């Protein structure tokens, strides 16, 4: 290990390259190669496997992040989560992107009978007062035990 005085900042540190410390070298002399990301097609400094840092995290860590989120915020084991969503949306059968909805709207009740997979559209409709009764009726028609909660009408300025 060779200790040198950096040509740029004057600090004494381990010699890296061109007579500079590692900090100055990265700021001034290091020019990483840019390439086209395989996913987003932007020219960037690549992270690994031909992806930019954002795409790399999305491609390789999305499933793990989803499992951590469901375990942390919903106390749902990943095995239960994947068992429920593998069947598709309970209303339309869409299988690409799914959310788990608690039928009794109690996030602490994670029993298998209380969790129903819904696509983002139907999940959003369930929580919207204009479409709530329609979605509840669809779930009842599919054989799920859903109690109809009191649905407040939207604000009507003419009343």
Mean pLDDT: 81
Helices and strands, in order, run as: EEHEEHHEEHH
Supply the number of structural domains: 3
With strands numbered from the N-terminus, the spatial order across the biggest sheet is 1-2
Total count of strands: 6
**Beta-strand residue fraction:** 5-15%
For the terminal residues, how far apart are their CA atoms? Answer: 82 Å
Please bin the fraction of helical residues: 25-40%
Helix run count: 5
Radius of gyration: 27 Å
Structural class: alpha+beta
Shape: elongated
Largest sheet: 2 strands, antiparallel
Low-confidence stretches: none
Secondary-structure map with pairings?
Blueprint: E1 3-5, E2 12-14, H1 22-29, E3 34-36, E4 43-45, H2 53-74, H3 78-85, E5 99-102, E6 115-118, H4 120-126, H5 132-141
Antiparallel strand pairs: 1-2, 3-4, 5-6
Describe this protein's structure.
- A hairpin with a 6-residue loop joins strand 1 (3-5) and strand 2.
- The model has no long low-confidence stretch (mean pLDDT 81).
- The longest helix is centred in the middle third of the chain and has 22 residues, at 53-74.
- By secondary structure, the protein is of the alpha+beta class.
- The chain has 3 domains: 1-31, no CATH class; 33-74, no CATH class; 77-153, no CATH class.
- It is elongated and about 75 Å long.
- Helix content is 35%, strand content 13%.
- The chain has a two-stranded antiparallel ribbon. It has a two-stranded antiparallel ribbon with strand order 3-4.
- The chain has 5 helices and 6 strands, in the order ββαββααββαα.
- It has helices at 22-29, 53-74, 78-85, 120-126, 132-141; strands at residues 3-5, 12-14, 34-36, 43-45, 99-102, 115-118.
